[in-house]
Amino acid sequence: MRWLSVGVVAVFGAGAAAGPAVAAAPSAATHRAVAAGPSVHCTSKNPELARKLAGDMTKALAGRKSMASLSFYDRPTATKCAFDPDKQYDSASVVKTVILGALLYQEGGTLTAAEDALARKMITVSDNGATTTLWRQLSDLTDPKKPDPVKVREFLDKAGMRDTVLDKEGNWGLTQVTASDQAKLLRLLSGDDDSVLGATARSYALGLMRQVQSDQRWGATAGAPVDAVTQVKNGWLQRSRNPDVPDFDKGDWKVNSMAVLTGKGYDSGLVVLTENNRVPEGRPTEEGMKYGIETIETISRAIYRNVYPGAEGYDPSGPAPAAAKPSAQPPVAG
Predict the structure, then answer these.
(1) Enclosing domain of residue 76
(2) Of 7, 102, 113, 170, which is the most exposed, with the fewest CB atoms less than 10 Å away?
(3) Whether 42 and 126 share a structural domain
């Protein structure tokens, strides 16, 4: 078992468009704290921002008794941060964004009314039945007991998400995802590259993510500027204590969150994946999930207060901000 161990590396980017290259400047020297295990790593055209982000995320992760990985990007400042981003985690419901992407890709961006209804349930209220129906639609059903989601794999390959491993038994919630791959998906959905999904399909996907019901808007949204358009999808599951579950996983909570900010010049994405959020002996089972949420939101606030200093931050425990209207009509066929 490899528990969380935090160091910090802030590597400052060279050749920024807003000014001269900074790689040779004294202020751009690598900032490093030697520690065992993976390190927070940030790059930016703003050396001070990279340093502060790496340091504050180190503090946010310090002392956490669970595993966590993250990937963050902010296009306007050319900032990227990562912490063990290629480690695989049980996806829980964050895989629903992958399934949505695969559905749009396979259907050429145009959904039937029935597919639209299922997709909306899957994303906005995290409906598991709707997800299973779409998963099977995207699968080879030669063995109905073990649907092989070949069409989901086609989308993953096209999107370059090669570290995402679909469950061989057909359990979509046990898909192995990485923070790096999920951040690639956020970049795809919020970018302008039409090679995987067209603009209308991307807008539709983001539109569903910003209509996620209010009690599921926690996690990577915490501290985000309230005037940003915030799209989110979370996932959580508690592993059972059945004999077939590895001792490493028995009874722990997997809690994951991903959010992308757009509008008014915002263009950033954050993915945080966690596991081994244990339930203290004799305590209510939901305490494991709360611990995972707290970990994610501590990281999220540390990031947003540095990238958007002075902005009023969103508090997931309060009322949800008004959802922005989709910028395009849903790609639905008659």
Answers:
(1) 67-333
(2) 113
(3) no
